[in-house]
Write a structure and sequence with these properties.
The strands form two sheets. A six-stranded mixed beta sheet has the order 1-2-3-5-6-8. A two-stranded antiparallel sheet has the order 4-7. 54% of the residues lie in helices and 13% in strands. By secondary structure, the protein is α+β, with helices and mostly antiparallel strands. A hairpin with a 2-residue loop joins β2 (42-48) and β3 (51-63). The chain contains ten helices and eight strands. It folds into two domains: 6-165, 3-Layer(aba) Sandwich (Trna Endonuclease, Chain: A, domain 1), CATH 3.40.1350; 207-351, no CATH class. It has helices at 6-24, 81-86, 108-117, 138-151, 162-174, 195-203, 207-238, 247-267, 271-296, 304-343; strands spanning 28-31, 42-48, 51-63, 73-76, 91-97, 102-107, 124-127, 132-133.
Length: 352
């Protein structure tokens, strides 16, 4: 059966939460088909006393914790700067935080026009953590948006220059669909030599992730075990010139740092940062493999400068990395709790 990706469920959660809130307030939400989503997810028509007012805004809804910033939230505008500033109707940005189960909003058009008028080209639009959109604030938010519409009823776009215009047209040409006739069988020509393997994967969807995980763990442990004797010898021959470390203490610090980075990469909720931590751990592993095996085999000789830096400076660098990561995660947890207090001044539901 088809699998529903977690990211898809998170995206739909934000749109559903926004739609339910605005429709409960009597306004009209018309979603845009996902295939025609070019920076807006839906159109919002405002009503008053049960009648349409004629005021309409486009809405970009973002869902997930990836839009958090150190203070508040942010929506990237790299690909939609001209769309949101040249639009004849304002574009509103909404971020849904699944942990807080709260909506936060900003007037994207208003912010970008103000920034461009001052000669700046922002890469994202910030959203304050107090800009909450819920049952208590929806009335005042609607009033602010309608007031902006009335003041800028005939707003015109700010031209961004000929270079941006040409690059935009080139991107459009590159993405054109020429509707070429596909004469191959539906889905393409089958690869019979791989059908049995693919059938097995489809019957056991969890096999590949588990296999890759255990292969990665096994390969990592083998590399660490193979390089141990060589690293010990390298530290004993080089390390004592600058450090009062013996080989065993150095190895404990080295292996501990690698395992710490790998463990943090599993617990870090942000995928990009977790990937960066994994690459840091693997860089340490391959550096140790390069230096350690040079002392165990005659296949190559390690670069003396690299070897000296790796052996003598690694304890200092790893201490700094561990202290930085520890303080970084403490700061993020403090920010998370501050958001909770700002979103729920009367107390967090369920004590989360």
């Amino acid at each position: 059966m088809a699998r529903v990706l977690p990211t898809k469920k998170t995206e739909r959660a934000g749109v559903n939460e926004f739609r339910a809130l605005m429709e409960s307030a009597g306004h009209i939400v018309q979603e845009i088909d996902g295939g025609n989503d070019y920076g807006e997810d839906c159109h919002l028509s405002f009503t008053q006393n049960g009648e349409r007012t004629g005021d309409i805004v486009a809405v970009q809804v973002k869902s997930g914790t990836t839009y958090r910033r150190s203070v508040g939230y942010g929506i990237s505008c790299r690909d939609h700067m001209q769309d949101w500033t040249r639009s004849r109707i304002p574009v509103i940005g909404v971020v849904y935080d699944p942990d807080l189960r709260k909506l936060f909003w900003a007037n994207l058009t208003e912010h970008l026009l103000r920034e461009l008028e001052q000669g700046r080209s922002p890469k994202s639009v910030p959203i304050d953590e107090t800009a909450i959109l819920d049952v208590d604030t929806v009335g005042s938010v609607v009033s602010r948006i309608r007031s902006f519409i009335s003041r800028n009823d005939r707003v015109r776009s700010i031209e961004l220059g000929i270079l941006q215009s040409v690059s935009r047209k080139l991107r459009r040409l590159g993405n054109r669909n020429f509707n070429e006739v596909d004469r191959t069988p539906l889905g393409g020509v089958p690869y019979e030599m791989a059908t049995s393997a693919v059938d097995f994967r489809e019957r056991h969807p969890g096999f590949d992730p588990a296999l890759m995980r255990w292969l990665t763990i096994g390969a990592t442990l083998c590399c660490l075990a193979m390089m141990g004797p060589g690293l010990y010898e390298a530290v004993e021959s080089v390390g004592h010139t600058s450090w009062l470390w013996n080989g065993w203490l150095w190895l404990v610090g080295y292996y501990g740092t690698v395992l710490y980075l790998l463990e943090m990469s599993k617990k870090d909720p942000q995928k990009r940062r977790a990937r960066f931590l994994r690459w840091g751990a693997f860089s340490l592993i391959w550096s140790g493999w390069y230096v350690g095996l040079a002392y165990q085999t005659s296949a190559w000789s390690a670069n003396p400068v690299f070897e000296w830096i790796f052996v003598t400076q690694l304890p200092v660098v790893t201490k700094g990395v561990i202290l930085y990561l520890g303080s970084f995660y403490v700061h993020r947890e403090i920010s998370r709790r501050r958001r909770l207090k700002a979103a729920y001044p009367r107390g967090v539901p369920g004590g989360g």
